[in-house]
Design goal:
Shape: globular
Strand order of the largest sheet: 1-2-3-4-5
Bound molecules: coenzyme A
Order of helices and strands: EHHEEEHEH
CATH architecture: 3-Layer(aba) Sandwich
Strand content: 15-25%
Number of domains: 1
CATH class: Alpha Beta
CATH topology: Aminopeptidase
Length: about 180
């Protein structure tokens, strides 16, 4: 079988990845808003304290627009290949922020990572994580962290398998 030319080659004769990853651009914003809302709604399923706001769609648009113009942000879009070419099927959003008290001084935080269900469990997440990490390192990050709902065990397993471990915890109660 010939791999689609856009597919990312993988070592050891594993199937090529069904995506092409590239920096997100302004024209992607509507698609990215949709994916970001899916992720936030998924987070809501994990915890009532992550209830999605009524204006989340407008918020997603303005956050993404700000990130796309921010040199300290990384937003990568995963496009499908073949018939799905040019369809944005996943994304990762990450930010480089300063740690005023700790060394390494600059932290790359993966705040959102999302793939449409059909694209999961095929090594795409691992590839997206690796590329986002490289981009964060390129922007000066000396440590990479990931934020996700504590109850999201798939995310916990996904990151643990790639060497991440908890270093701080956010505990909450309603007021
Ligand atoms: C998290 C996510 C990006 C991982 O991408 P992926 O392409 O499925 O991950 P990979 O194929 O590279 O790696 C799979 C590994 O992740 C974990 N994992 C992924 N899906 C899993 C599932 N349904 N059950 C258990 N473990 C799972 C396992 O460690 C798995 O390794 P294994 O297949 O050897 O058991 C993707 O599942 C996703 O978009 N999920 C919904 C959004 C989300 O939860 N985002 C993270 C919080 S912000």
């Amino acid at each position: 079988m010939t791999a689609p030319e856009e597919a990312v080659p993988r070592p050891n004769a594993t199937p090529p990845l069904p995506i092409r990853l590239r920096p997100a651009r302004p024209a992607d914003v509507p698609a990215l808003v949709g994916l970001m809302l899916r992720l936030k709604r998924l987070n809501e399923e994990f915890d009532p304290l992550l209830k999605v706001r009524d204006d989340a769609e407008a918020q997603a648009r303005s956050v993404l627009e700000a990130n796309l113009g921010d040199p300290k942000a990384v937003v990568l879009a995963a496009e499908g290949v073949g018939a799905e070419k040019e369809k944005v099927v996943g994304f990762v959003r990450a930010l480089v922020r300063e740690r005023p008290f700790y060394s390494p001084e600059w932290e790359g935080v993966i705040v959102d990572i999302y793939l449409l269900p059909l694209y999961r469990r095929r090594g795409v997440g691992e590839y997206v994580l690796r590329e986002a990490t490289a981009a964060l390192k390129g922007k000066g990050a000396g440590v990479v962290t990931a934020e996700f709902p504590a109850q999201n065990e798939i995310a916990s397993r996904f990151y643990a398998k790639r060497g991440f471990r908890p270093i701080t915890a956010v505990h909450a109660r309603s007021l």
